[in-house]
Amino acid sequence: YVLEYGSDRLEVHQDAIPVGSRVLMVDDLLATGGTMGVSSRLIEQVGGIIVGYAYLIELVDLKGRKHLDKPIFSLVTFEGE
Question: What is the pTM of this model?
Fold first, then answer.
C-alpha cells in the first residue's frame, strides 16, 4: 500500500483469524487512517468482521476517521498545533 512518505506491505496467514470472528482493531496512533484502512481490508479478506477501532492517541486535524467506517474510540485526542 502507498503512504504519503513511501510504501509498505502487510500480510496475514489465511488461517490466522477464524471466519466470522468479530475483530476490534487496536493501534497506538490514528493519524491519516491509511494503515488501519488497509489492515481492515486484509482482515475482512480472510473472513474477519471488523467491529470497531481503538487508539491511544488521535491526531484530529489529520482527519483519519473519514477513512474508517466503524465506531472509533480514542483515549486521547490532539487538535491543532
Answer: 0.86
